[in-house]
Amino acid sequence: MHDGNAETLWAFVLGRDRYQLDNIPFLAFDLSLNDVVSAPVADDIPTFERVLERSGHSTYRLALQDGVDPATFPELVGALKDLGCRLERFTPRMIGVDVPPSVDIHAAYEVISSGMTAGNWHFDEVNVEHSLT
User: Fold this and answer.
1) What is the pLDDT of residues 67-119, one digit of tens each?
2) Euclidean distance between CA atoms 18 and 34, whole angstroms
3) Are 125 and 62 in contact (CB under 8 A)?
4) Which of 36, 67, 126, 130 could form a disulfide with 59, with the two C-beta atoms 3.0–4.6 Å apart?
């Protein structure tokens, strides 16, 4: 926990304080879907300590720009789904994007970057595990 803020993630229990993340991290940087993490129990709650195994997934966070109707989000991100990305809504105006290892990171980044250039959203790179070469 940092400054009273925390993110609760779904995870598979692997035993011995090890968990495999089962949803897209949104607030926590340097994590991706399917990463295996160490999370010792403190006060009856597993608390993230460190990443043990990287999944190869990359994670982005999109936030709609002012004036863009949240109802258009599915249409705006359709190209990401077509590439094979997984999407999870965090709020009506914010969405997490998982780019699996099998998806071309350059194609996904082009869609994300184009959406920003078009004035649809701002984005953050939460965690990039793909090779960028």
Assistant:
1) 999 999 889 999 999 999 999 999 999 999 999 999 999 999 999 999 999 99
2) 12
3) no
4) 126
Phi/psi-derived region of residue 17, left when phi > 0, alpha when psi is between -120 and 50, beta in every other case: left
For residue 104, CA distances in Å to 25, 27, 39, 82, 119 come to: 20, 24, 31, 12, 23
What's the total number of domains in the chain? 2
Distance from C-alpha of 125 to C-alpha of 1, rounded to nearest angstrom: 21
One-letter amino acid for residue 97 of the chain: V
3 state DSSP class of 82: helix
CA–CA separation, 4 and 115 (whole Å) = 32
Which residue would you say has higher pLDDT here, 71 or 1? 71
**Residues 100, 41 within the same domain:** no
- Same domain flag for 89 and 123: yes
